[in-house]
Design a protein that fits this description.
It comes from Pyrodictium abyssi. The protein is α/β, with parallel strands linked by helices and 241 residues long. It has ten helices and ten strands. It has a six-stranded mixed beta sheet with strand order 6-7-8-3-9-10, with helices on both faces. A four-stranded antiparallel beta sheet has the order 2-1-4-5, covered by helices on one side. Helix 3 packs parallel to helix 6. The structure holds adenosine-5'-triphosphate (ATP). The site of adenosine-5'-triphosphate has 12 residues, from strand 2 and helix 1.
């Protein structure tokens, strides 16, 4: 079972360093949530794992292999899927075209099976097959983005704020889907979330980033109830009594 381990990672954009000695582990078949204030480097961490930033030093071990410095297409090939926050579907193509595009390189029968699997997981997409992705609701668009990623049968999925801008009820639906990916598909999940409380309730493990450094790594539950960190950085009021 693949786990992901970051070891003393220093990374950023060109000369602008954003991540400082970032180390943490995302254990197999668990949801690891990355939380932290705005600008603390959460998205940059996901982009770095997927080969989209400049790495100065450190290691990213996936399944025991160091993937730091590999280009995104090689990282994808190893079984890692990245679902960015926006621009994660082709708005001008239909739902069907988006899914078919994602099967590129698969033989025809497995391509059909995989699309069918996605439609079984997200029945609403079946109703929208001939609709342009740009006309989907926010929640439906997230489902399509997740579906596109699932077609490659990833072992590790990186989600960047998948519930941003969604109504609370729809946000819960998306988090439920992510929990199903862990439980039914045995996928290891790394989840960046703005809504720390909800995400920590769903997550197994947690990483708190502050100023590009790891301020906490441990059980999600522990961070949720941490007397100081939860209040200082996540705006959560520790429960009393
Ligand atoms: N492409 C880029 N080029 C240069 N700097 C960037 C780029 N993308 C992000 N940054 C900077 O990196 C820092 C960390 O941004 P990042 O998006 O990783 O934070 P975040 O924790 O995900 O924040 P948020 O919750 O606001 O999305 C910020 O100061 C941001 O301005």
């Amino acid at each position: 079972m693949p786990s992901l381990e970051l070891r003393k990672l220093n990374a950023g954009y060109g000369k602008l360093q954003i991540l400082f000695d970032v180390s943490f582990t995302a254990p197999p078949e668990k949801i690891t949530v990355i939380v932290g204030p705005n600008g603390s480097g959460k998205s940059t961490t996901l982009k770095t794992i997927f080969g989209l930033t400049t790495i100065y030093s450190g290691e990213i071990l996936f399944d025991g292999k160091n993937i730091a410095g590999l280009p995104p297409h090689k990282i994808a090939k190893m079984g890692i899927a990245y679902v960015p926050q926006t621009d994660n579907v082709f708005a001008k193509l239909t739902v069907r075209e988006n899914l078919v595009m994602a099967t590129y390189g698969l033989d025809e029968s497995s391509a059909q099976d995989r699309v069918e699997e996605v439609l079984e997981m997200f029945p609403i997409l079946r109703e929208r097959l001939d609709q342009k992705a740009g006309t989907l609701s926010g929640g439906e668009r997230q489902m399509l983005a997740i579906g596109i990623a699932l077609i490659r049968r990833p072992k590790l999925m990186l989600f960047d704020e998948p519930t941003a801008a969604l109504a609370p009820k729809i946000a819960i639906e998306i988090l439920d889907i992510i929990a199903r990916l862990r439980d039914e598909y045995k996928i290891t999940v790394l989840l960046v979330e703005q809504n720390a409380k909800k995400a920590l309730e769903y997550g197994d493990r947690a990483v708190l980033l502050v100023g590009g450094r790891v301020a906490f790594e441990g059980e999600a539950e522990e961070l949720l109830h941490h007397p100081d960190l939860a209040r200082m950085y996540l705006g959560l009021v520790a429960e009393t009594g």
